[in-house]
Description:
5-stranded mixed beta sheet; 195 residues; alpha/beta; 8 helices
Amino acid sequence: MTILVWYWPFNTPMSxxxxxxxxxxxxxxxxxxxxxxxxxxxxVVVFHNRELVRGxxxxxxDLPRPQGQTWARMSMDYITEKLWRNAYQGGAVxxxxxxxxxxxxxxxxxxxxxxxxxxASVRDLRKFLQELAKDKKSYAxxxxxxxxxxxxxxxxxREKLCKICTKYNSxxxxxxxxxxxxxxxxxxxxxxGKL
Length: 195
């Protein structure tokens, strides 16, 4: 399978020398390329959402699209690395704000964080945290995710792109989104979706 990166996320190209997906991530039969002339032979063409939204990238609508070729939108809907590194790897219960609770639930282990939006006031949050600090059993429940999960930090776009090969067969088939902006407003997702 050939995955074509139409433009690199944040305009930061990475080396694709050798068999990147196999050499780095042990994903077989997955070729990652970034040369536009390979468009006709690509199984999947990946577009990074940020550059599309800002007008820095354009979809190649002027090119004849091969039958069966999948276009994938890749988005990073941002949650600070401090959640993973400082809290989860550091052994703390994170108290979070910013993105909505649903965004955290999409990426974080269940019952592993406390979101400030769950409280009517800062006073209510403070009271909850004070009571939680006294209740060892309830506090320990925030770490039960460690029995099934472990934190894995992604530091390389190539890994996320190569993983498309492992998820390809589970992507929805024959799904077309003609208006990416309206689709994005109705779907709070950070995963790959078909265009």
